[in-house]
Design brief:
Elements: E1 17-21, E2 24-28, E3 37-38, H1 43-46, H2 57-62, E4 66-68, H3 72-82, H4 87-93, H5 98-105, H6 113-123, E5 128-130
Antiparallel strand pairs: 1-2, 1-3, 4-5
Helix pairs in contact: 4-5
Length: 135
């Protein structure tokens, strides 16, 4: 079974690359490796092996499940305003339509992983949090 990219979810052709993206070490495809800092393959030995049972206690300890913050729309708006940008300007800077920014800030659209990471990097905000923090 081919390995899936932990960012985009597509099957990885050949060996996956290890990349540090927003403080997390992820197995990614060639395209997504550009979203962070690519690590030497030597790090693969140090990375914990994923359990075949995603519900096992070791899985939860090694790789906490990340979820989109419930107040993502406020965090995006506050980050944009802190940088002094309009919705139009933010859209231009991150190559997204203004309507997407308006929908996000109006909580009528949940961003996918790629858009979330793009917003986190550009606005210097955190939109993903461990699932346990919501319980």
């Amino acid at each position: 079974m081919p390995v899936e990219c932990e960012v985009c979810g597509n099957p990885v052709a050949g060996a996956p690359r290890l990349a540090m993206i927003d403080g997390s070490i992820l197995q990614v495809c060639n395209s997504c490796s550009r979203l962070g800092t690519e690590l030497l393959q030597k790090r693969a030995v140090e990375r914990p092996i994923r359990s075949s049972n995603p519900g096992s206690p070791s899985q939860k300890l090694l790789e906490p499940e990340l979820e989109l913050r419930l107040d993502y729309h406020k965090v995006i708006r506050e980050g944009r305003e802190k940088m002094g940008l309009s919705q139009d300007q933010l859209g231009l800077r991150i190559a997204e339509k203004t309507s997407v920014i308006k929908l996000l800030e109006g909580r009528r659209l949940k961003p996918d992983i790629i858009l979330t990471r793009k917003l986190e990097r550009f606005l210097k905000i955190q939109l993903f949090a461990p699932a346990e923090s919501f319980e």
